[in-house]
């Protein structure tokens, strides 16, 4: 039995028109109802991922910025954050 499903957005969950097919939404809601955690894992920024999570009605930590930020869907709790050190960004 699966415990977690992590879904990418672009080219996976979203169509080329940037919408989620209704049958995909139904499938996600079905597995959530069965007790499986569904989350988003994307290179996108948190704000974008949280909008899509709300469309799916999932309230879980979201993996964003290529894994550099894991934050609850409401943006209140950061579970993991890896920032670029300032000395690396200065040239």
Instruction: Give me the strand/helix succession.
Output: EHEHEEEH
Instruction: Return the structural class.
Output: alpha+beta
Helix percent band:
25-40%
In DSSP terms, counting alpha (H) and pi (I) runs of 4 or more, how many helices? 3
Sheet with most strands: 3 strands, antiparallel
Per DSSP E runs of 2 or more residues, the count of β-strands stands at 5
* Uncertain parts: none
Task: Categorize the overall geometry.
Answer: globular
Amino- and carboxy-terminal Cα gap? 50 Å
Binned strand content: 15-25%
Radius of gyration: 14 Å
Strand line-up across the major sheet: 3-4-5
Output mean pLDDT: 94
Describe the protein in words.
The chain is α+β, with helices and mostly antiparallel strands. The protein contains three helices and five strands, in the order βαβαβββα. Helix 1 links the parallel strand 1 and strand 2. The mean pLDDT is 94. The strands form two sheets. A three-stranded antiparallel β-sheet has the order 3-4-5, with helices on one face. Helix content is 30%, strand content 22%.
């Amino acid at each position: 039995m699966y415990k977690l499903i992590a879904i990418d957005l672009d080219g996976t969950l979203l169509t080329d028109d940037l919408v989620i097919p209704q049958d995909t939404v139904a499938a996600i809601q079905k597995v959530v109802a069965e007790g499986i955690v569904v989350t988003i894992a994307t290179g996108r920024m948190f704000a974008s991922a949280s909008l899509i999570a709300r469309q799916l009605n999932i309230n879980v930590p979201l993996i964003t910025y290529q894994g550099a930020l894991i934050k609850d869907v409401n943006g209140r709790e950061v579970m993991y954050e890896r920032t670029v050190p300032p000395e690396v960004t200065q040239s």
